[in-house]
């Protein structure tokens, strides 16, 4: 499996994968991704890494600044999605570990991600990789008749900040 940055030839396929795999079970947003929207996100500071094998995109990690304020530049946040057929095969773990190494080299001190409390598999993975829960917004979302917590997780690249 190769991890690489997104290329223009990937935009349509990434949008398709986002629309197919980002569901209300994993995000509180209704996806309406398109190549044009991906280009727009890239133009405003989002960067994409792809997990690719045999020219097939298995996973997507996008990242950008957590805060617009200059005082939060040490913190970066990300989102991650694994194609349905690639789940449980280490794709997300590989992407996240790649991103942790990349973020260290870029000089970030802290990585954050928000995870829905209704996604125990994701919470378990992040915990296994060393993320800690820093906050929980109780009953933050109301989806399909149920209230769902929004969990804020962090990974400290600079352990002295813990």
From TrEMBL:
<feature type="domain" description="N-acetyltransferase">
    <location>
        <begin position="1"/>
        <end position="158"/>
    </location>
</feature>
<keyword id="KW-0347">Helicase</keyword>
<protein>
    <submittedName>
        <fullName>Acetyltransferase GNAT family</fullName>
    </submittedName>
</protein>
<dbReference type="Pfam" id="PF00583">
    <property type="entry name" value="Acetyltransf_1"/>
</dbReference>
<dbReference type="InterPro" id="IPR016181">
    <property type="entry name" value="Acyl_CoA_acyltransferase"/>
</dbReference>
<dbReference type="GO" id="GO:0004386">
    <property type="term" value="F:helicase activity"/>
</dbReference>
<keyword id="KW-0547">Nucleotide-binding</keyword>
<dbReference type="InterPro" id="IPR000182">
    <property type="entry name" value="GNAT_dom"/>
</dbReference>
<keyword id="KW-0808">Transferase</keyword>
<keyword id="KW-0378">Hydrolase</keyword>
<dbReference type="InterPro" id="IPR050276">
    <property type="entry name" value="MshD_Acetyltransferase"/>
</dbReference>
<keyword id="KW-0067">ATP-binding</keyword>
<dbReference type="GO" id="GO:0016747">
    <property type="term" value="F:acyltransferase activity, transferring groups other than amino-acyl groups"/>
</dbReference>
